[in-house]
Specification:
There is one protein chain. The protein is α/β, with parallel strands linked by helices. The protein contains twelve helices and twelve strands. The strands form two sheets. It has an eight-stranded mixed β-sheet, sandwiched between helices. The protein has a four-stranded antiparallel β-sheet with strand order 2-1-4-5, covered by helices on one side. Helix 7 packs parallel to helix 8. It is globular. It starts with a strand and ends in a 6-residue tail after the last strand. The protein binds iron/sulfur cluster.
Length: 322
């Protein structure tokens, strides 16, 4: 197993309130596996990815939980170990390249920095020529044309698609084992989303990386992953092989989520799921989906459902299956 998350709770503190966002999340993945995490915007997907890298904002608290990457306990690891993991083992493609890239530095300076620290961690002190050569190589890996111009550009001088390719190049430099991709096509023109996805898919395959792909775009997750988790309001509701999950969803939330995905068909666009995510300041104490669930029973409002294995490849957290 390359990554396991157990009973992860993450809270955000504001002046008056505590927002209890992740509520006992669990996840397991094997080496080389491609895992998808689906759920509505605001359900805690990005918080989960940032927890794995331990790059949560300063107002966050982790009262409970365990994250194990290979043989490293991420939440207990010291800064030196975490720096090494972030430089050499786990890379992350952030949702918004414009926010993730530093606007006041040229692309070359941002790339050189990552390459330099990675090589130093490997015990090599690179010359400027070696940094330049490596930067050209990674830009060609992500199929960016006109490498020299890209290196001399500031982020605002590149198109959205080019910025995202630079982000992918940066993430791949650090992703020796695991790539985390947070909504990698959200801010990209729809006409090149498919190209970016195919690029990520090809690079992951070539390098034999394990991947966690987070998205609310169900089609993308279905196309690109082997196993999927459904996250709702900070709780894992269901987990199964991706095809099994999409063909035979068990949890009421997953069923409604899949039914509400926009499709081009004679039936038109689905109605969506009525209601909204709970208020994280005072979330329901039982099943967090209960206020929106058409099958909610009295017990659902008081008791959080445990995990039930419905078959060897499929787990669901719902009182209907206990
Ligand atoms: Fe619905 Fe109850 Fe199942 Fe939650 S536990 S999804 S409220 S039936």
């Amino acid at each position: 197993m390359i990554l396991s998350v157990e009973d992860l709770h993450v809270h955000y503190k504001s002046y008056w309130y505590t927002h209890k966002v992740l509520n006992g999340v669990w996840l397991r993945m094997n080496e080389g596996e491609r895992v998808g995490i689906i759920g509505e915007t605001g359900s805690g997907k990005t918080t989960l990815l940032k927890s794995i890298l331990k790059v949560l904002p300063q107002n966050s608290v982790i009262p409970r939980g365990q994250i194990r990457f290979r043989d490293i306990e991420i939440l207990k690891a010291d800064d030196r170990v975490l720096a090494s993991v972030r430089r050499r083992e786990i890379g992350m493609i952030f949702q918004d390249p414009m926010a993730a890239l530093n606007p006041v530095f040229k692309i070359k300076d941002q790339l050189y920095d990552i390459i330099k620290y990675k090589m130093l961690a490997d015990g090599v002190s690179p010359s400027r020529e070696e940094l330049h050569e490596e930067a050209l190589r990674v830009l060609s890996d992500v199929r960016l044309p006109d490498h020299e111009r890209v290196l001399e550009s500031y982020p605002f001088q590149l198109s959205g698609g080019m910025r995202q390719r630079v982000m992918i190049a940066m993430a791949l430099l650090s992703a020796g084992k695991l790539l985390l991709a947070d909504e990698p096509t959200t801010n990209i023109d729809v006409t090149i989303q498919d190209q970016i996805l195919r690029l990520i898919g090809r690079l992951v395959k070539e390098r034999g990386l394990s991947t966690v792909l987070v998205s609310h775009a169900l089609g993308m997750v279905r196309q690109m992953t082997d196993r999927s988790y459904v996250l709702y309001a900070g709780d894992i509701m269901e987990e199964a092989g991706t095809e099994e999950l999409f063909e035979h969803p068990k949890h009421p939330y997953t069923q409604l989520l899949i039914a509400s995905a926009p499709r081009i068909s004679e039936r038109g666009i689905g109605e969506g799921i009525k209601g909204k995510l709970p208020d994280y300041r005072s979330p329901p104490s039982g099943c967090r989906f209960a206020p929106r669930c058409p099958f909610a029973m009295e017990k659902c409002y008081n008791v959080k459902p445990g995990r039930t294995q419905v078959n060897a490849d499929h787990t669901v957290a719902c009182h209907l299956y206990e």
